[in-house]
Amino acid sequence: MKVEEYDLQKLVSPLLDWFYVHARGLPWRENPTPYRVWVSEIMLQQTRVEAVKPYFNRFILALPDVKSLADCPEDKLLKLWEGLGYYNRVRNMQAAAKQIMEDYNGKLPEDFEELLKLKGIGRYTAGAVSSIACGKLAAAVDGNVLRVISRAAADDRDIMKQSVRSNMERELLKVMPEGKSGDFNQALMELGATVCLPGGKPECLKCPWEGLCLAKRENKVSCLPVKSKAKERRREERTVLVILDGDKIVLNKRPAKGLLAGMYEFPNLEGYLQEQEALEYVKNMELTPLRIEALEPALHIFSHVEWHMKGYLIRVAQTGEEKKGFLIVKAKDFKENYALPSAFAAYAKYLNILQGKDREG
């Protein structure tokens, strides 16, 4: 069955009744201004709600409005984002903030189509901001919404297809209650996040749609939604070098484009280096290695590539001077001012440097 063949209208009232009782208390729901909703939705992309909470509070405290975001120095911005990953999200937010200052007099637009003109804002985020913060009739269809609607209607079409997503947007708009569009969108998301869970783990007995869900009735819950398999990730082997120069740390800054663009990192190379090869590499950096220690292997998974890493802790003779091609920074300055991608978190612990997420924990 396709979603348009199912009476979505009958789902609205029980969903809203359930939401008003069971909605989680989330910091961005306390004062849902357009800016706060926007920040929260960007943070929530590819990140769990519980993980986002402390980051959201810290970010809003430091950058409470569009202007402060637009004017924020990049290193400070990335440090605030440290631990959330996918750093292009926050770079796009800052680019959008500058657009807002220039084109919208510093005020985040309320209209769905105008929001789509901003860097990094797609249809889901535009719908969320427009409906939740501004009360506009706009659909906000994310993975949670696609899942709950596919199951309710026993719709077995591939939710990875844009045509299916667009179809669900249109059908939801037809039944969206006037004056409650934000509540309706949040309720759909909440149902998918807390009850109609992925895989074979939905809590159907807690669902307000238990008696209305065709997937439940037809015993198809575990089969829906249909989602085409993502392209297999590429595997890369890398060697990470944690180089200590007295009380200082050696860092690289990645290129302005590409993976982890513009981020600071421990020096690292493709392939697995033996100890002697790692020492030779350090010597070629015009540093004098004193001793080397093998570190535990680590794995980091990006959306399209996996880094399988081995590492070495290498102490070098104090140079007392900067070297061309890399940075030597004091540990205290590193902790406070330099954002290290979570890909290297397994090796940062050897420096007893707390990542942003650890400080908040």
CATH first level of the largest domain = Mainly Alpha
Order of helices and strands: HHHHHHHHHHHHHEEEEHEEEHHH
Number of strands: 7
Q: What structural class do helix, strand and pairing data support? A: alpha+beta
Percentage of residues in DSSP E strands: 5-15%
**CATH topology (fold) name of the largest domain:** Endonuclease III, domain 1
What is the CA-atom radius of gyration, in angstroms? 24 Å
Shape: elongated
* CATH homologous superfamily identity of the largest domain: Hypothetical protein, domain 2
Helix content estimate:
40-55%
Q: Averaged pLDDT, please?
A: 93
Please render the helix and strand layout as text:
Layout: H1 9-22, H2 27-30, H3 34-44, H4 49-62, H5 66-71, H6 74-81, H7 88-103, H8 112-115, H9 123-133, H10 143-153, H11 162-175, H12 181-194, H13 214-217, E1 234-245, E2 248-253, E3 264-265, E4 268-270, H14 275-284, E5 289-301, E6 305-316, E7 327-330, H15 331-337, H16 345-348, H17 356-360
Parallel strand pairs: 1-6
Antiparallel strand pairs: 1-2, 1-4, 2-3, 2-7, 5-6
Helix pairs in contact: 1-12, 3-4, 3-9, 9-12, 10-12
